[in-house]
TrEMBL record:
This is Calcium-activated chloride channel family protein. One of its GO terms (molecular function) is chloride channel activity. The chain crosses the membrane at residues 175-192, 198-217, 271-297, 309-332, 352-376, 427-449, 506-529, 558-578, 606-625. The keyword Membrane applies. Keywords: Membrane, Transmembrane, Transmembrane helix. Residues 702-714, 787-797, 811-821, 828-842 have a biased composition (Polar residues). Residues 968-982 have a biased composition (Basic residues). Residues 158-625 form the Anoctamin transmembrane domain. Residues 928-949 have a biased composition (Low complexity). It holds the Pfam family Anoctamin_N. Its main location: membrane.
Length: 982
């Protein structure tokens, strides 16, 4: 005999829609196929299932997850917990239910089953309900007796069965009751004082109570969530989908824009809801004001028949309108929620709660605000206009109407009196009468509705009932309790939170109106706390809730703070208005504060009072919240997420991250010691002398300039001159090192011996002004050399000797500590005798010797580059010329083009190139010389060499260009020689 289903300990039951055709009394083949597919899918996902009938149109599918699959899902959950610092262990019943439900309902992208009630592809699934002890046999009377006689209700038991969120609600409610006890004692003392209402001292104590309650609850909440190990659990719930998407499309370096990054867009959509909320608030406030005026007319002005019944009309109107407006508001809210596109159910629920609280706030506190700030201060202004009101009613109603004489029967101005106790009566209604109504609606009406609906379905509708004769007798009673839960609503703990927060708002906003309100609220709170516990464990009110894991009571902590902040403004003002009793009505005046029936007429005093209390609350809250961090418990320090995260990151990155900073080692610093550092010349004072005028030197012009005046550089001291000399020396050494490096990079291959012989032969036969270049290689990769004319011929030997002598003299004088810089080589306007700018002073020479490395500078600078270095440099200029090519008049590009193209043009024997026009040849060669010079400059600039040593090459190139223009015949012969050799 198989075991009863309740003894198999199922995890959930799934309410599955399985309709029967009324005509054929059978189930359609499509429904049978869908059921088979669904059950097969459950088994594929690791579930075992057993089916029982639920009602004539629904099935109960009891499911149990296999142990191996649960262990796998629990391990995933623990890993996610570890990622965000959650230390709770999944060893409780509520944790098992939560993990399995998450596995059932999460999307396939997250590794779940994707079974969401009412959504495709399993629309037939109506509900997924956990199987708990609520389905066990119980009686309401016995459960009530057990609940009220139990000395203390343990939140740990609730946490183990129904999860952290519900347990946190009961802990908050219990903590609120403890604090209400202290406020009740203060209220009792205040009530028996002479000024028992609207006491300014009690108002401040009430605000202090609210401020300290919020701060201490924050500390209590942090202790509880750390004790239960659920700290930072909201991060796991909020980022589960985001983590899956990140793992799916991993980026080595995070970018700002993501395809699915919707946080910013969601925030913009939430901002668009503000006008919608304001519109609904305007409609509700307008309707409340209309009902308020009707109530004032019927209670204070109307003097006709049926007055006692007609005064209930505004209440009826409010009671009918508010639910209708709430339904419309919720429909609009649901559309907005869908447009916002929340990633998780937690985020969506919080958005719904925040939007719903706007309407709850207005419906709960707007009547008291209207009475406090509109009716009591300014109702006396209506008295002088009673005749106008009567005339207006007669005009619009008409005298022939049978009820016209009743509506126009108003009190006289002498009979009109303001209801001074209206605010007290309204506050008593919300604190006492409304609480009694809430107790009836929450704890008695649901039981009555269940009985009435059952009788209506069986006696009036004659609805077919399920045949239960085939049930196993050991399962029959337990299955009956499960079937009764099909029609019950789902338990929402936020509804209970809302009731507690609304009661807190009445006390913090209007507590000074009646000091006994905390005592009455304490009595109701104790009773409701017991009944909430009874309602949760008894299976006659709700379906068993799904356990949820949270780390705060958010967003209700925001609502509590908002109410306390508003209370710091509203409560002192109401007390200041009526703390000496309601002021006598003023029959004349306008709608202004100085004409209001209040005990404060100075607007400045009123504003100062509001600013003082509001800022004092904010300042005290800030202080208390920060001081509360000093009282962290040991378990909070152990679970500190920031410290754990820093430790984990340090351990991980210390093994993988290595510095990539380039460190430049200067060996000279290793020679310094403590003794050598302290061996310095102490500063000494001398007699003041007159400042010597600064010496002005013309400096090199950088780039091209059209100015005819040389720029000047001011040298203020000999140390500055030494610094310039040292800089010249450093640049020269860099230039020599670069030339040596280029020599080492000269390619060598296996045919070096043959190439060397060819190179030596050409070196012997070539002219003094020619250079050896590398020609094309043969198919065996053997190198061949050729010569090329460098076009540096001169016609006058004396001129050449003079030019070389001047250049050598100029270089030596520049590098031997001269105090003035020569003009730039390409500055034609500054072509003057270099001796004019050379200063052979003894002081300048000594300054050059004192400069770092100054010794031997003149000898190093005077040595010109070797012939081999010049040839190597010119070959590089010719082969790697980056300057853009320009066409000459003959159509042939000048030497700025690559060398291979020039060789092809020459080899082809272009007529334009080999023409008899001497002028054309001269222009081509002149252009080639300039291009080489430009290329040389570009190459040196790329290597970081911007020293004055480059000026020698520019001067040589310029001299070659000038000499080539003077002797076209010699250039023509050199070009023909180049053609023959190529």
């Amino acid at each position: 005999m198989p075991q009863p289903i309740q003894e198999l300990d199922p995890d959930f039951y799934i309410s599955y829609n399985y309709p029967i055709d009324e005509k054929t009394k059978k189930v359609s083949s499509q429904s049978e196929k869908a059921l088979y597919t669904f059950v097969e899918y459950l088994y594929d996902k690791g579930f075992a299932a057993s089916i029982r009938p639920g009602d004539p149109t629904h099935l109960l599918i009891f499911i149990k997850l296999s142990p191996y699959k649960f262990i796998e899902e629990a391990e995933k959950d623990l890993i996610k917990n570890y990622e965000f610092g959650v230390t709770a262990k999944d060893d409780e019943f509520s944790a098992r239910i939560r993990i399995i439900y998450q596995y059932l309902t999460s999307t396939k992208k997250l590794g779940g089953c994707g079974i969401v009630p009412g959504q495709a592809p399993y629309e037939e699934v109506v509900n997924i309900v956990p199987v708990t002890s609520a389905f066990d046999e119980s009686r309401i009377v016995e459960d009530l007796k057990d609940t009220f006689t139990r000395p203390e209700l343990s939140a740990n038991q609730i946490k183990r069965t129904y999860g952290v969120q519900i347990a946190l609600y009961f802990e908050f409610y219990k903590y609120y009751i403890y604090w209400l006890f202290g406020l009740s004692v203060l209220g009792i003392f205040q009530y028996f004082k002479k000024s028992k209402t609207y006491s300014l001292g009690y108002t401040f104590l009430n605000l202090l109570w609210g401020t300290f309650f919020l701060a201490f609850w924050h500390r209590k909440q942090q202790y509880l969530v750390n004790l239960w190990g659920v700290q930072n659990s909201h991060l796991v719930e909020e980022h589960s989908l985001e983590l899956a998407e990140i793992n799916e499309r991993f980026e080595p370096q995070s970018s700002y824009l993501h395809k699915n990054n919707t946080e910013g867009f969601r925030f913009v959509k939430q901002l668009f809801f503000i006008p919608i909320a304001l519109a609904f608030a305007a409609v509700l406030i307008s309707y409340q004001l209309g009902c308020f005026f009707i109530e004032i007319f019927l209670t204070d002005l109307y003097d006709g028949p049926g007055k006692s019944y007609l005064t209930l009309l505004p209440t009826v109107l409010i009671s009918v309108f508010v639910p209708i407006l709430t339904i419309i508001y919720n429909l609009v809210t649901s559309v907005v929620i869908k447009l916002e596109g929340h990633d998780t159910q937690v985020s969506e629920n919080q958005s719904v709660l925040i939007k719903a609280y706007v309407l709850n706030f207005l419906t709960s506190y707007a009547p008291l605000l209207i009475t406090s700030f509109l009716y009591l201060p300014f109702a006396h202004l209506v008295g002088p206009h009673l005749g106008d009101i009567q005339t207006t009613i007669s005009t619009y109603v008409g005298e022939n109407r049978f009820y016209a004489k009743y509506l126009t029967k108003l009190k006289s101005q002498k009979e009109f009196k303001i209801n001074q106790g209206r605010l007290n009566a309204q506050f008593f209604y919300f604190v006492v009468t409304n609480q009694v109504l809430q107790a009836f609606l929450k704890y008695i009406l649901p039981l009555l509705i269940t009985k009435v609906v059952k009788l209506y379905q069986t006696k009036v509708q004659k609805k077919p009932q399920l045949q239960t004769s085939a049930d196993d007798p050991y399962e029959a009673r337990w299955l009956q309790n499960v079937r009764l839960s099909l029609d019950l609503p789902e338990y929402v703990v936020d509804d209970d939170f809302r009731s507690v927060v609304l009661q807190y708002g009445y006390l913090i906003l209007f507590g000074p109106v009646w000091p006994l309100a905390p005592l009455v609220s304490l009595i109701f709170a104790v009773v409701f706390f017991k009944l909430d516990h009874f309602k949760l464990f008894n299976g006659n009110y709700f379906k068993p809730p799904i356990p949820k894991r949270v780390d705060s009571i958010h967003p209700w902590n925001w609502a509590l703070f908002l109410l306390t902040w508003l209370g710091s403004i509203v409560s002192p003002v109401v007390t200041a208005f009526y703390r000496h009793g309601t002021a006598p009505p003023k029959t004349m005046g306008q709608f202004a504060l100085d004409n209001a029936s209040v005990n404060i007429s100075s607007s400045a005093k009123l504003v100062l009072l509001m600013l003082f209390t509001e800022h004092a609350f904010l300042f005290l809250s800030y202080i208390l919240y920060n001081l509360s961090e000093l009282f962290k418990s040991g378990v909070e320090w152990e679970n500190d997420f920031v410290d754990n995260d820093i430790k984990l990151r340090h351990d991980h990155y210390s093994k993988h991250v290595k510095p990539t900073i380039k460190v430049v080692n200067v060996p000279a610093w290793n020679e310094f010691t403590v003794d050598s550092t302290l061996d310095f010349t102490p500063p000494s004072a001398v007699e003041p002398v007159d400042d010597v005028a600064a010496e002005k030197l013309p400096s090199k012009k950088q780039g091209y300039s059209t100015s005819t005046q040389a720029s000047e550089t001011t040298v203020h001291s000999r140390s500055e001159q030494a610094r310039v000399i040292a800089e010249k020396e450093r640049l020269l050494r860099e230039r020599q090192a670069e030339l040596a490096r280029l020599e080492k990079r000269k390619p060598e291959d296996s045919s070096a011996t043959n190439s060397s012989a060819e190179y030596n032969r050409l070196n012997k036969d070539k002219d003094a002004s020619d250079s050896i270049i590398e020609a094309k290689s043969d198919p065996n990769s053997k190198k061949h050399y050729s010569t090329i004319d460098n076009n540096t011929h001169v016609s006058d030997g004396n001129n050449k000797e003079k030019t070389g002598t001047d250049k050598t003299t100029h270089t030596n004088e520049l590098l031997q500590g001269s105090s003035q810089l020569p003009p730039a080589p390409n500055d034609k306007s500054a072509t003057v005798d270099t001796n004019k700018y050379t200063t052979h002073s003894e002081n300048a020479a000594k300054a050059g010797e004192r400069a770092p490395g100054g010794a031997g500078l003149a000898s190093a600078a005077a040595a010109p580059p070797s012939k081999k270095e010049k040839e190597k440099e010119r070959e590089q200029q010719f082969d790697t010329n980056p300057a853009p090519a320009k066409e000459n008049k003959s159509g042939i590009k000048n030497s700025n083009a690559p060398a291979t193209e020039q060789r092809k043009a020459l080899a082809a024997g272009d007529d334009k190139f080999n023409g008899n026009s001497d002028t054309q040849v001269e222009k081509d060669k002149s252009s080639s010389g300039k291009g080489s010079n430009s290329n040389s400059k570009s190459s040196k600039s790329q290597n970081g060499d911007k020293s004055s040593g480059a000026d020698n090459d520019e001067s040589s190139s310029k001299t070659s260009e000038t000499d080539s223009q003077k002797e076209p015949k010699r250039k023509r012969s050199g070009l023909k020689k180049l053609l023959n050799k190529i």
